[in-house]
Amino acid sequence: MKDKILVFIITYKASFRVLNVVEKIPFNYFRKKNYKILISDDCSNDNTIDYIKKIKKKYKSKISLNFNKINQGYGGNIKKCLEYAYKNNFNYAVMIHGDNQYDPKYLAVMVKELIKNKNIVATVGSRMVKKSNALKGNMPIYKFIGNIFLTKLFNLLYNTKFTDCHTGYWGYNLNKINRGTFKSLDNHFCFDIDLRIKLVNKNLKIKEFAIKTYYRTERSSIHFIYAVRFFIKTIINKLF
Taking the chain, what is the end-to-end CA distance rounded to the nearest angstrom? Predict the structure, then answer.
């Protein structure tokens, strides 16, 4: 019996970009696997739903859809997808964002490593292995500096060697991560750091892969709030 792999795409006001993401999935790799793609939209009020329905029409049975009637938040939407994975007995899950910031071509690499190396519980894509690539990908300078500082802080406190503690590109070995691990995590943008802290505290291994990324011209007001919350969570979870 082949391992079951879930590729889940979280969307919120992604519009046409979600179609671009699906088209760049490395289907040549996944066709040889027992896989499913889940697109979970977090109550978008633009034309994202129209594009998702077009994707479903094209790919038919290999695509499942979830539309949250009430906005769940970034972490809440991920939890919905992971709950779907556990309920349907998937062994591995890998997450990609619907806004096309992360390149789907790395999905195959992340899944391969999870299957091959049973000591790894999660794989993550790092934009900062070669820091110049992050700047070439238009990472804003304030995010670039903040990433370096906060990642160094995390490494210092938790005795780790990560290069990018702020990535949203994750793969999960669901055979190794207890279902209940996700329930207490943040429902918003600190979901990933909460998970990282939990896994590190349990001495579970997270493996980084170098990735390229692309930032568009849009800017979000939540970055400062996220940075403050990351700083506080990193320290409090270590001290208490």
Answer: 44
**pLDDT of 213:** 80
What tokens were used for 121?
């519980």
* pLDDT tens, residue by residue, 107-128: 999 999 999 998 999 999 999 9
123 closest CA partner among 167, 178, 88: 167
Both tokens of 225, joined, read 């709030």
Interior angle at CA 117, CA 115 and CA 121, nearest 5: 85
Look up residue 53 and give its DSSP letter. Answer: H
Output phi, psi for 167, to 5 deg: -75, 150
Amino acid at 34: N
Alpha helix segments (H runs only) across the chain: 17-23, 27-30, 48-59, 73-87, 107-116, 131-136, 141-158, 191-201, 223-239
* pLDDT at residue 217 in the model: 59
Q: What is the pTM for the complete model shown?
A: 0.95
CA-based radius of gyration for the chain: 17
Main-chain phi, psi angles of 9, to 5 degrees: -115, 120
pLDDT at 187 > cutoff 90: yes
